[in-house]
């Protein structure tokens, strides 16, 4: 009963025991301003455009990348050996002669990136999709590396 | 543009939103181009992963607010192998110095890029003033 009252009381801050820690982290972020301290950023960075996230589930590997403003025609995806190459060119069309820029933060240019996959990727089964500026390359895992149920006779 | 250069990696800019968030998550500032013609102010914003349903464009009292939720395409059973970028909301505010004709604002979202055309009110378009002697 006492415990419940304690936990229910909003002023005691029980609801989020990490609130103080989070506040400290924010302070640290502000002090250092370094990506190393930033939450949600593991600090791994290949330094090559575009940044990619690679995930896996039971049957597939997925490579995802944020490529806003690119159409499927602007991209070239090649699979060879154990790796996938994503290359292309981002074009920002000129907006006419009579325009005055206030801000220009978006960039155009060429890029090429190779992503090596862990063993067990079946490079004959690769597909790619582009939705709302996010590229997803799906690579099937080869049958040999998939977990199998072994029945006991 | 004579020679195309190589694109460099740019880290997504995380921002602190003035209003407290009801849902936890990271918030990023989208990269924008803003330019002006005689008739319009045009804003282009890179918002990868944003669909029309999740985008909110709001203009009141000369403050333009862009906010968007991003639905991660990542499936439930997927595990990270390599994580170079984080997925989160987009949020950015701008103060407009011109008077905008609210009824004619056009917004278009293509391949994760928002194109917002804000027509200036007639009065603000520059006129050539002829001098008679």
TrEMBL record, chain A:
Keywords for the protein's UniProt record, in alphabetical order: Stress response
Pfam families: HSP20
InterPro entries for this protein: A-crystallin/Hsp20_dom, HSP20-like_chaperone, Small_HSP
Domain SHSP, residue spans: 43-153
Cited PANTHER family: HEAT-SHOCK PROTEIN 20 FAMILY MEMBER (PTHR11527)
Sequence similarity: Belongs to the small heat shock protein (HSP20) family.
Protein name as catalogued: Heat shock protein Hsp20
Organism annotation: Desulfococcus multivorans DSM 2059
């Amino acid at each position: 009963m006492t415990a419940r009252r304690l936990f229910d009381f909003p002023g005691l801050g029980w609801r989020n025991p990490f609130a103080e820690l989070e506040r400290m982290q924010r302070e640290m972020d502000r002090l250092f301003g370094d990506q190393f301290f930033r939450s949600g950023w593991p600090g791994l960075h290949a330094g090559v455009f575009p940044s990619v996230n690679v995930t896996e589930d039971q049957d597939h590997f997925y490579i995802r990348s944020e490529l806003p403003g690119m159409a499927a025609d602007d991209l070239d995806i090649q699979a060879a050996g154990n790796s996938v190459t994503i290359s292309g060119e981002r074009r920002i069309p000129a907006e006419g002669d009579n325009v005055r820029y206030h801000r220009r933060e978006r960039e155009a240019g060429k890029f090429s990136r190779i992503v090596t996959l862990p063993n067990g990727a079946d490079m004959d089964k690769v597909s790619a999709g582009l939705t709302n500026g996010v590229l997803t390359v799906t690579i099937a895992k080869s049958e040999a590396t998939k977990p199998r149920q072994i029945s006991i006779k | 543009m004579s020679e195309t250069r190589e694109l460099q990696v740019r880290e997504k800019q995380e921002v602190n939103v003035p209003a407290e968030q009801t849902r936890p998550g990271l918030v990023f500032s989208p990269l924008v181009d803003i330019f002006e013609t005689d008739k319009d102010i045009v804003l282009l914003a890179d918002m990868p992963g944003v669909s029309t349903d999740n985008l909110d464009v709001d203009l009141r009292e000369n403050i333009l607010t862009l906010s968007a939720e991003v639905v991660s395409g990542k499936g439930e059973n997927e595990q990270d192998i390599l994580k170079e970028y984080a997925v989160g909301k987009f949020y950015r505010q701008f103060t407009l110095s011109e008077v905008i004709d609210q009824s004619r604002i056009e917004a278009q979202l293509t391949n994760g890029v928002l194109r917002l055309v804000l027509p200036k009110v007639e009065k603000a378009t520059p006129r050539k003033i002829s001098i008679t002697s």
